[in-house]
Fold this protein.
Amino acid sequence: MGEYMLKFGKGNARIEVREENLLGVLKSRDVPCAATETEAIRKALENPIGSPRISEKVKPGETVCIVTCDLTRSWQRPSVYLPLLLEEIKKGGARDEDIFFLVGTGTHRAHSPEEHKLLLGERIYGSYKIFDHDSRGEAMTDFGRTSFGTPIRLNKMAVDADRVILTGSIVYHFLSGWSGGKKSVLPGISSYETIMANHALALNPPPGKGRNMVCRSGNSEGNLVHLDMTEAAAKLDPSFLLNVIMNGEGKIGWAVAGDWREAHKAGADIVDSVDRIPIPRLADLVVASACGYPKDINFYQSAKALFNAQDAARPGGAIVILASCIEGYGNSEMRMMLQKFKNSDEREDELRRAFTIAKYVGYCVGQAAEQFDFHLVTDIDPKLLDGTGIKTSRTLDEALAKVTAVHGAALETWLMPHGANTLPVLLNPAPAR
């Protein structure tokens, strides 16, 4: 009998699995990374991919727009990499007064001065202009439509700048394959209509056909959301990119810089080398942690672990997700989708009526509850999940007892201690019929 510890909230949960039942523990590979965050960033800036150094591109008197993440993604540690990026830019003769920051909020809210300070950091806050993108504002430039029919309307401040530099972090993204790169433009600094039209490509065109499964984590091949985003970003023609990749300690372990397409591809390859884990077969049971606090602070954030765990479970098998969710659902639209609508057909109708990312997350979670025996170990009030098809437990032992009561004890099992990060990929999957 093997014993394992999985993160849950600010603590841990213990699980024992019979050796004959355990298929394996799916976790990130131990890939060498930079000794320090500064080393990772400087190395990338000094050795750009597919591009000269940004200090060789920016000319004195040119205006420079640096697109940065919003507060919901402050775990990317922009206050660490932005000062080093500025140093490199200013080597080319750029003046402080010609450089400004544009927070790529997408559809998120505006920030307070204190939040801007947290994003930029003490070293540079107050020395540069910083603006929040407003997706519903009028200050947009129209570039027509993508080949997929998405209207391209982008923030005018970025369009009018002489140089645009994209920053951010690369992780798996359940719609576009990977975050970072083109996502700084769409959704980052795009209009609300642009964002919604793009994300709606995650559904198959015919009503009732549900998700377009090529729009998923770790896939760019034929991924309409990714391709559409890339077309929109190309209209802006960014001058440079700096993206970081986090290590297992939540620090910047790797960074890539240079051409916004080539450098991003190199960064996505790094993410794959760490977190893309091949599996020989699907399991009867997958037990996954949403990585503990703060990643399991609410159900909305914790859904990432469910999306990854699904790729390791057989149809109709059991999935147990450990997610404390001390802030409950964390999103009113996700909660509405699960509580108000009783099946995937109803949720899909609502999604097609008015698509939002939060509704899509609710739709996908509800679909998982229909396709799998889905158990959530959580601190959420069980009444909030009544009628959703999601079974709740306060402890992992309680959840496993419910699973074995239905499926028996001899269950082939995958464990995922970092479920929100690890992407299982089935080797030689059966061809679609």
